[in-house]
Amino acid sequence: MTDARLYLLQRATAVLLAPLVLVHLGLILHAVEAGLSAAEILQRTRGSIAWATFYGLFVLAVAVHAPIGLRNVAREWLAWGGRWLNWATFLMGVLLLWLGARAVWAVVGGGL
Amino acid sequence: MVENMLDVEIWRGKETGRFETYRVPNGSSQTILDVVTWVQRNVEPALAYRFACRVGMCGSCAMTVNGRPRWTCRSHVSKVVKSGRLRIEPLYNMPRIKDLVVDMTPFFEKWQAARGQFKPSITRFDPMERISPDSMRRRAVDAGIECINCGVCHAACDVVAWNNDYLGPAALNRSWTLANDERDADRGGLLSTISRSGGCHSCHTHGSCVEDCPVGLNPAAGIAGLKRMTLTGLLRGDLG
Amino acid sequence: MIQRWRRHPGYWAAIAHRLSGLVLALFLPAHFLVLGLALEGEIVLESAIRWADQPLVKFSEWALIVLLTLHLSLGLRILILEFLPWRGSRQALIGFGALVSILAGSVFLLKLE
Q1: Residues B232, B162: one domain?
Q2: What total of structural domains would you count in chain B?
Q3: Chain B within 8 Å of C78 (Cβ-Cβ)?
Q4: Which of B77, B102, B127 corresponds to the end of one domain?
Q5: What angle do CA A46, A50, A54 make, to 5 degrees?
């Protein structure tokens, strides 16, 4: 993938993530005030299509956004390059997508 | 009468070398270039450095002064020296040849790599094109065209230091003025060229080029403009 | 890399943006794995959350809130610098970003009480 396309994806996901992060932060502060517990989290998320969509989108965007950022760091600070760097970026994206999707499924659908 | 003197550290050598300290008269309203010249004429005839116009037009005399790249002919000692310390070394991000002189070849090669040449769309036999001075594109060109090729922004840039492929702020500033030149025949080719690895998308908008440009240009804003132009090209499918 | 003198707010903003991003990216897999514990039942997730009540872990959570807010504000600054017309380095935006993240961190601390 060209640098221009990676840049486009990085900025596009940034625009998408900005409001998502704001809501997520608000939710964290709210949840901490209420006293964080598994029951409280799962009661909110289980079977909720709204939260599944919200965090599904979040995971998708972050699985694109974070690997591109790490790629820049690896290239500039560790002098990585070439095919290795492309594969590492891709694998990081797959890892985040898989773990993230699994986490969303765990809190929304798990136990159903 | 005890003359007011100033201790100056000057880099001697190539990539490896050392700082030598020289004691120079601390005259009023002298420039960094005056100090270097005084050392060369009075103490160290073998000291190598570059200058030409002495009035901030030619862009030859840039050096690193107290860690910051500057045009030395227009930098007054009194404005630069804080707590009596003055340390002069060659520009960063370019190979050191001797003392204060760097090899600027890689810098100018990047201008070539950024397609820094104008590509005419008409011949000398055609009537001249009329470009309104008020047009948006012409004003964008005006904002970036006064570059004196001194290399200060290139030396200031972190991404240039981190990524050998990066074209750098000066070359991309040139691309930006060409991308806004209505007479240029190949904007598409230009945008493809600067979208390759190490092109405009490598810039992270640290803004060191803006901080240090001696003639007050804003290469980072131009590079941001190139990013927007290339994204439009990408979304339209014009860009490979 | 560090010995250079020309450090200005724009540089520090970029470094803070990068380091916060780095920490957040490395934290994400752990975050996802903990939430994934719900697959093994509510009790398993609950025990992980109670484990996180330790002061050191709570402190890390607080740091992550601050870093997330910082990364968000500094990221918005980049989007503004790159996509809106501007001249100069817009240093006020950096101060604003720092302020917002300190605010978020303080709110988190207050709510813990």
Answers
A1: yes
A2: 2
A3: yes
A4: B102
A5: 105
B17: CATH: 3.10.20.30
Domain boundary residue, one of B70, B102, B134? B102
Residues B124 and B217 in one domain: yes
CA neighbours closer than 13 Å in the CB half-sphere of residue C60: 11
CATH classification code of C4-111 = 1.20.1300.10
ipTM for the whole complex: 0.92
List, in order, residues 6 or more apart from B216 with CB less than 8 Å away. Answer: none
Look up the domain containing B199 and give its range. Answer: 105-236
pTM of the model: 0.91
DSSP calls for A42-95: HHHHTT-HHHHHHHHHHHHHHHHHHHHHHHHHHHHHS---HHHHHHHHHHHHHH
**CB pair distance less than 8 Å for A25 and C82:** no
Which partners does chain B have (≥3 C-beta pairs < 8 Å)? A, C
Residue C68 touches chain A, beta carbons under 8 Å: yes
Hey, are the CB atoms on B220 and C81 less than 8 Å from each other? yes
Residue-by-residue pLDDT tens, chain B, 240 positions: 456 889 999 999 999 999 999 999 998 889 999 999 999 999 999 999 999 999 999 999 999 999 899 999 999 999 988 778 899 999 999 999 999 999 999 999 999 999 999 999 999 999 998 999 999 999 999 999 999 999 999 999 999 999 999 999 999 999 999 999 999 999 999 999 999 999 999 999 998 999 999 999 999 999 999 999 999 999 888 775
CATH of the domain at B138: 1.10.1060.10
Q: Do A8 and B239 touch (CB under 8 A)?
A: no
Residue located via tokens 């993240």: C101
